[in-house]
Amino acid sequence: MNNKNNELGDQHAPTKMSRKSFLRLSVGVAAAAGLGSLTGCSNNGRALRFDSLNDALIELALIENNLDTLEMQQEWTLYKVLNHLAKTCEGAMFGFPETDPPAVQAVQYIGFQAFKAQGYMSHDLTAPVPGPEIADDGPLPEAFTRIRNAISDFQNFTGETFPHFAYGNLTYAEWELANAFHMADHFSSLTY
Question: Of 123, 145, 173, 189, which is least packed with CB atoms within 10 Å of its CB?
C-alpha cells in the first residue's frame, strides 16, 4: 500500500487522539456501521447489492436506458451522483487531496469491515468526497463516460493503490468492494 503523501498535496500530519476519545469514536463508528441501514442514513429503496464493479456497469446501462422514467430519491442530481462515484473510484488510482487522520481512518476501517460482513453499505448520500466540489448539473453523457472510464481504468489498474480518504489503506479487492458498495447504495435510491 502507498504510505507516502499523495501527489495532490496531502499535508495532514498525524493527529494525536486520547484513548478515551478514540474509544468513543470507535463505539460511535461501530454503532453507525451496525445500525446504518436502520437509521435511514441512505434511502435503500431498491436495496441493490453489488459484489463487483461489473454489477455497477450493468446497473449503469439500465439507468442510461431508462432516463425518461428515472426518479431520484436523493438530494443530488444524476449528474452529480455519477461524478461523485467516478471521483471515488479515481481516488484509488490517483489519491485524494486530503484524507482523514490515521486514528480516524483506523476506526472507519472497522466500519468498512462491518459493511463487508453485511454485504452492503449504507451511508449519508450527501457526504462529499475530498476535492473540488462537483457541480449539480452538467452534460449527462459526459458523466456516464467519466464513471465508465473510472471503472474500466480501475479494473485494468496494476499499480499501487492510494489510501481511501476515510478507510485508509485498502487492498485492491477491498477498493473494488468499497466502490461497488458505494455505487449500489447511491443507485438504490434511483428508480425507473
Answer: 173
Model confidence over 114-143: pLDDT tens digits?
999 999 999 999 999 999 999 999 999 999
pLDDT tier at 178 (50, 70, 90 boundaries)? very high
pTM of the model: 0.78
108-113 long-range contacts (CB < 8 A, ≥24 apart) are 108/29, 108/166, 108/167, 108/168, 109/167, 109/168, 110/26, 110/29, 110/30, 110/33, 111/29, 111/30, 111/32, 111/33, 111/167, 112/33, 112/164, 112/166, 112/167, 112/170, 112/174, 112/178
- Domain ranges in the chain are 19-191
Read off the C-alpha cell for 11. 499535508
Nearest Cα to Cα of residue 93 among 11, 12, 179: 179
